[in-house]
Every structure is written in structure tokens, then in C-alpha cells.
Design brief:
homodimer, alpha/beta, Carbamate kinase, 2 domains, 6-stranded antiparallel sheet, 12 helices
Amino acid sequence: MVSIVIKIDSTSLSSTEKIEQIAKRIIDEKKRGRNVIVVVPNMELLEDKNYQIVNLLSDKPSKRELHVIESTNAQIASSLLAIAIQKKGFKAISLTGWQAGIETIENNDSVLISNINGERIIDRLKKGEIVIVAGSQGVDHKNNILTLGDGGADTTAVAIGVALKAEHIEIFTAQDGIYTADPAVVKGARRLKQITYDEMLELAHLGSQTVHPRAVELAKIYEIPLVVRSSTEAQGTLIKGEVDMEKNLVVRGVAYEAEIIRLTVGYDSYENSSLANIFSTLANNDIDVDIIVQAVIDGVKPTVSFSIDKEDFAEAIKVLEKNKPELGFSFADFEVGLSKVSIVGAGMVSNPGVAARMFDRLRKENILVKMVSTSEIKVSVVVPQDDMVKAANALHDEFNLIEEIVK
Amino acid sequence: MVSIVIKIDSTSLSSTEKIEQIAKRIIDEKKRGRNVIVVVPNMELLEDKNYQIVNLLSDKPSKRELHVIESTNAQIASSLLAIAIQKKGFKAISLTGWQAGIETIENNDSVLISNINGERIIDRLKKGEIVIVAGSQGVDHKNNILTLGDGGADTTAVAIGVALKAEHIEIFTAQDGIYTADPAVVKGARRLKQITYDEMLELAHLGSQTVHPRAVELAKIYEIPLVVRSSTEAQGTLIKGEVDMEKNLVVRGVAYEAEIIRLTVGYDSYENSSLANIFSTLANNDIDVDIIVQAVIDGVKPTVSFSIDKEDFAEAIKVLEKNKPELGFSFADFEVGLSKVSIVGAGMVSNPGVAARMFDRLRKENILVKMVSTSEIKVSVVVPQDDMVKAANALHDEFNLIEEIVK
């Protein structure tokens, strides 16, 4: 019998009415004759007296105990959804991470799913029950409870889908799929019917919050299809290895990120400039560097520029000042009020003219490109914050993302 | 190494200050060089948004899911206490019921502990950790979470003590031990240094809320000593098989229960009177009957009187009316405004004059005895509600429970 895994969104748990609606939606899926496994995220309704008490008790509570407390949220959510489904006359059962056979390991600061023993879930499916799994949690080999952190519920859904050889995984979100750009900003942004894992990864890393990259990466490895849609609509976006339709569309989406800061560090001579040192020092201080541009021009002192998030700015300046002697740079400069706009599409690999077309269009729009970064399926530019929306709309238009829907 | 199990009271979890106090108290016990296992009850602080949502979702939620939700309370409480202990520089770890190896079974409507696999707890004790177990929960053989209901945390503490061959079990309560009567009502009521399991069982069933009878019964079977005390004082009451001291004290305590109702059912002839029928009918409708008195006097129509709790009154009348034809009685009558006062003491078995002395004293106090019930170690009388406090004080005085402390 065909199984599907549905990861519901936290909005679907934001009130009793919403819980009843999502229960009905899940029952509809069951009525189509499939085995249904549902993965629930944390409920904001339950956040959170617990942490208030924790903070009063300790300024440095142990991670192990925080995992134990954190895990109760999705545990309660899974039971509430099971109760709502049962109320409508259907069989349902909640399973915590450990009950569902989800094995996890701690790796440095993150928690990963190492294995899923799917027997318990399969047993329950065989009884005709809808299985509701508390997302983002499991146990290590010593039966300690661990929670997965950001993107944990998405990742749990994909991992269960892989373990149970599910037909596909549905990720319910507030939007009805993946868009060529943010519809709130770009006129004519439209929903993609299909997109590849790699394109989705680029979009996810570029700020699209619909599916967590961890989950997309896992789905890519096991080649299991993901469907992203809202819980209330039939349409959505299919994420898979190769996209059949729309192949001719070179650029698949436009993404952007606001509030970027460019830092520039200059050296007196080439001998002093050690890029490795500067970026390892920043990384050791948890400062994420995105785009890096090194200018080495004859007769000009060498400089390196890089972009960071606004939140990391103060810390980055502090780290640079502190380590100035070792890092050997002679000056540091910064520019605020920038943003990043990117175009993404698997077809770009075989279309070398795409970047040039992008720069050309931006020039026509009188938008100054401050930095550039490219990958096989992506081109990102840093432009003034004030031009961000204009740039996104122009690129969306340039690559025919609007017209495509009319065809 | 000697182990002790401490079951803390819910008052100790009623604020962060209280949690910090109880953490210190537990650490003191650890400092004495013992292995310490703590069993926590539910926290009232966390009660309870969850049930509000459940009630909105379903008027008849499944018991299985209610267990799942209920279990999160003590799970969180155990983590919070572990965090508070760690904050003070001591090693501690929380364990849920299933992590602690607590196996439970469902038996009709109640959940019982069937076995404890103590390995996990022992492993942790060997590491020098204080082990905090979420009370009143375990898992069945299919790993479903079950919660134990009333007295569950007390019972968990005793069961763990038995499994780990603990030296004794400490039950922390609001009071500093077991009293000869309720100090709020009886002048001169005093704390007993020791009491037998059977005496404690009678007192518990008669309304003393310090230790749950389930826990006392289990301790009695395995002959493991219980110490009842407040978390802030050294003194307490030792509950064990045979009491060494105070043996000469025939009556060990006075208990009472307010708001009793006496129902009387009369028959036209002996042929029609079937006691078994009437009490099985009441039992089938979940009405607890306490004292039963049957009057069969020559020349007088047979009657049977029994006492019930005020809450069951309306239901009892309804059940009797509905089943009147089958039960064959000719009239039913009732008396409200009654109470039950009892004296308890293991020494009563070998002191046949105790009941007579009790009735004599009540007669002197002009207290009318409406019903009488006796067991080997207990005599209960039903008296007017208005005389309850007077009767309790008189009996406390009669059996020298006040003077004993002066000796």
C-alpha cells in the first residue's frame, strides 16, 4: 500500500479551529486509500512557561535537560491532532520520536537523524491508523532524548519517508508552493510546478523559508520527491531530481536578502595578506561570511571584500580589531545599506550568457552592482538596499518568469 | 552503596524558589554519601492549557492520548529539578518513566506498575548522578505511555525502592509526619514516631492524605520502610511492619470524614430482601458503599442501612428508583448531615474493650451513634455532622493520645 508523509505547518496548530481543519485535510488524504503518516512541528500555543522557569533556575541549563523539555511540545501537539482526528471518527495514534523509532546522534552542536526503525509506524499503519509523529525529536543509543533544532520537523518527515519508502513527502506551508520570487515584492511572481533539489537548495539558502535545506538535502540523497503546498489548496510545487516540464526556462527563480553589510580589509603589501587567516578567524567567532571578492590589481594595494549579515556586524568589527596584529591588514572599511539579489536555475550551467544578461539588465535599470558571486546554478549580486525590489522585479521580467505562466 | 528514594511533594515545585529549596534539600541527602533517587509528581504551575485545548477538540478524547499529554508534566518537572540541582554544582539527570525502565499495565480502568528494570537508574547512580524520575508514568509492553493516576508518584517511589533494594523511601508532605488526628481540628494531636503499614492503610482510607494507600500496600508487601516527613524538618514518621516503641498505645490515631449520608431500604418480608442484589446494583453504577448495617428483628420489617458519600447521593437515589421492581424493597429513606469518626490501632486486636470504651465516651459526650463498623484494627461510628469535631477530640483524649507525648 502506498504511503505518504505529511509535514504540517505550525500555523495549522495555531488554534483549535485550525487543528480541526488540518485534521479534516489529513482524513481526506486517508480517504484516498493511502497510508498517512503526519509529522507535527512545535505548537506556538504552548510556548512557553517552561523556559521562563528554566531561565529563573539557571543561566546555563544543561543541553540534555533542555532537549527533554523541548520534546514535550511536539509530543502534546501530536496527541492533540490525534484526538481531533479520532473525534471525526477516524483511527489515529500519536508517537513520540522514540516511539516512532527515530534514532539521533549529537554531532558537535547539532543533532542529526542517524537511523529510523520504521516497524512501529508500519505496525500502526497496518491497523488502519493515521500515525502522528512528534517532529524534530529522537533518542540516542543510550535512550537520551534529543531534539533536532531548525528544520527538524521537515527533516523528520523526509527521513520517515525514506525509511518507509513513501511515495512522496508533502510539506505544508503558508504559501501554496515555491515561487519564482516573493509574490509580496515581485509583481507577477508565479508558482513553479516543478523545481530540482539543487535549485530548491539555492532558493532555500537564499532566504526562501518554505522548506528547510536540511530536508531538501536528505530528499536529494535518497531521491524522494517533495511536494510543497498549502494545506488548503490542491496545487503546489514538486521538488525532484530532474524537472520534466519548464526545462526551457533557464532561470527558475529570483531571491533576495535585505540588510547586507560589505566589509573591506586592505593590506599594505601582498606578503601580509592572508585570506585563510582572516576567514578562519571570523568562522571561529561564528560570523558567517557570504560573498567574497578579492581585488589584486597591479600598482594598487590588495583588498578583500566580503558580505555579512547586519546582526554580525558589531561582532565582526570587534573580532577584526582584536586580531589586527596577527591578521596583518592595514585598514578596514565597511558599507551598509546593501542587499543581495540572486537568480537561480539548473539550466544556467549550459547557458553562459545568463550572468551577462543579468548585469546588462541591471545596468539599464541604473542599479549599481557592488559585488558578484556565481555558482553553477546561481548568480548573486550585491546592490544598494533601495534598489533591491526594483532589481528583483527587473530580473523576474528579464528572464520571462512572468510570461511563462501565460503560455 | 546505600540508596534512598525521595518522593517530593507538589508544593516543592510550586515556584522557582521552592524548586531551589528542594534541590538544596536533595543535595544535602547526597552529601550524606548515599545514592539518591528522586521521584517528582506533577507541577501545578504547568496545569493547564493542554486540557483546555483537548476539551475544545473533543468531549471524549482517547485515554491513550490523554496519558501521552499527562506524562509531559512530570517530564518537564523532572528536568527543571535536574537543572536546579546542576546549577548548584551537583550532577543530576532526569529520566522519564520509560527511560527509568518503569513497565506498566492497564487493568480495567486503572494503570499498575508491573515491573521495574532498574539498570538505567543504577548506571546513572554509579556515575555519581542524582537521578530524577518523572513520577506516575511508565510504558506498556508495546511502548505506549501510561500514567498511574491518583497516588501514582508515591507508588512509583516505593516500586523503585523495591527494585533497587533501597534502604528506605522518603515521602515528603506538607505535614511533618503522620498525626494521631488532624492537628487543625483536634487539640493536642501529635506526630507519631512510628506506625505500622496496616494502621497507615486504615488512616489513609479514612481520609489522611499524607501517603496514598497504593504506595503503603506495595511497601507492606515488600516490607520496605517508608518515612513520611516535610522537606524542611528532620523529624517524621516511620511506617514499617512492626512498631517497636509506643506498643502499649492501643489506639494510634483518630480520623474522620464529613458529609456522609445514610440510606435505608426496607422490605415487606424476609423473602423479598436480597442484600447481594442491592449492593451489586450500586457497585455496577460506581457508587461506593461504606458502612452497612442490617437490622433483622422479630416482628419488625427487615431494613438495611448503608452510608455513602454526599457526591453519590443523587445517583444512588436514581439507581434505586430505577431498579425498584427487581430489588424488591418497599421503601427507601435517607438521613443527611452525618459524619464518620474512626479510631485506628493495631493493638486493638488484643484489646476487646476498646469499642466499648469508645461508645461509652461518646455517650458521656451526648453524641448519638447512628451506625457502627469494626475491623480488626479500626472502629468507625457514624455520628451527626455537628458532633464530628467534638467526637474526634473526645476520642483523642479518651485514648491518651495527648498525654503520650508528655511521657
